[in-house]
Amino acid sequence: MKFAIASVLASLLVAGISAEGFSCARVPYITCDSPTLQKVCASNGVTYDNICYFNKANCDNKGNKVLLVLVPSR
Prior knowledge:
The chain is α+β, with helices and mostly antiparallel strands and about 70 residues long.
C-alpha cells in the first residue's frame, strides 16, 4: 500500500516536472524521436514511446490531463 501511494505521489511530481517548460503552442514543431528516452505508462492505460509523446498527448486532451505512472524497471 505504501508503495502504491509513493508511486502516485511520484507520478504527480514527474508529470509536473515533465510539463514544466513544455509549451503546447510549440507542439507542431517538436520532434519526439529519441532512442535514449524510455517508454512511460500513463493513467489512461496508454504506454507512450517517451515523455515527449506523453506531453504532446496531454496537449491534445483539451484540458483532460493524464498522469504519468511510474513503474519500477525489472
